[in-house]
Amino acid sequence: MAWWGAGIGGTIGLMFGGPIGAIIGAGIGSSLTKDQQPFQENLGSGQQRQVGFLVAAFSMLAKMAKADGSVSKEEVAFVERFIQQELELDAKSRQVAIEIFDRAKMDNTSIYKYAQQFTEIFVLDDPMRETIYRVLFMVALADGQLHPAEKEILQQITMYLQVDDDLYGRMEAELSGRSRSRSQNGSGAKPTYSGNLDRYYKILDLDKTASDAEVKSAFRKKAQEYHPDKLASKGLPDGFMKFAKEQMQQFSEAHDTIMKSRRHA
């Protein structure tokens, strides 16, 4: 996917302002655009959102990766996979993404400033803001442990991204419990549900007193909000739909597990 067109620089930086505009205005990617056609000054709304998303995303990823004082090889590998496999960027755009990551890693701007501006761009898109939170959580866990500084950011940044305060608990329950669930499911033993149910209720924003009808309703609402086609219409890169599909799968898993547990009760 090619998303970094000619002329992305000072003019567009002024359009965005804030830390995102500063990154763009610094001339990121200018060396990659000499062979392209002159840039049209008025970006469409979808293009604006896409550029804003990608600059903010890689800037926040850099801040999160360096939160514990250094960027580990596992975190670098996660970012590389994110660029190549999830976003499916072309070679030139990959180089620009790395430039953004490296520049943000060294600047003094707080991750919360990037999060605030990301929220301004996607103020009406709860799924978009929750999705970027998921990505930040995944890079924090890339080296197999959650450093206290990373934990603090993940707990505090919910306010700046304007997502639910309990999203940290939901992500921690889901991502830390995933490997345990896989090992249980592959063992051939009869599945047990009591240890996992709390995280599944959290995924659907429910508690254990919810009726069957409320569980089904919560699942349908989440599935509608996070449907890949709906997110694609909001300017996300095509490759990023993989994350939307993954979130859809977790909602389905939560619904199915809760209902199965009730049948086995």
User: What is the average of the pLDDT values?
Assistant: 77
Largest sheet, strands/sense/barrel = none
- Fraction of helical residues: 55-70%
Structural class by secondary-structure content? mainly alpha
CATH class category of the largest domain? Mainly Alpha
Spans with pLDDT under 50 lasting ≥5 residues? Answer: 5-14, 31-43, 179-194
Looking at the structure, the CATH topology of the largest domain is: TerB-like
Q: Mind telling me which CATH architecture of the largest domain this is?
A: Orthogonal Bundle
Q: What is the ordering of alpha helices and beta strands?
A: HHHHHHHHHHHHH
Percentage of β-strand residues: under 5%
Describe this structure as you would to a colleague.
By secondary structure, the protein is an all-alpha fold. The chain has two domains: 10-30 and 46-163, TerB-like (Orthogonal Bundle); 175-264, DnaJ domain (Helix Hairpins, Orthogonal Bundle), CATH 1.10.287.110. The chain is built from 13 helices and no strands. It has helices at residues 10-16, 18-25, 45-65, 73-86, 91-106, 111-121, 126-140, 148-161, 167-185, 197-203, 212-225, 228-232, 241-264. The longest helix is centred in the C-terminal third of the chain and has 24 residues, at 241-264. The chain is globular. Mean pLDDT is 77; it is low at 5-14, 31-43 and 179-194.
SSE map:
Elements: H1 10-16, H2 18-25, H3 45-65, H4 73-86, H5 91-106, H6 111-121, H7 126-140, H8 148-161, H9 167-185, H10 197-203, H11 212-225, H12 228-232, H13 241-264
Helix pairs in contact: 1-2, 2-3, 3-5, 3-6, 3-7, 6-8, 7-8, 7-9, 9-10, 10-13, 11-13
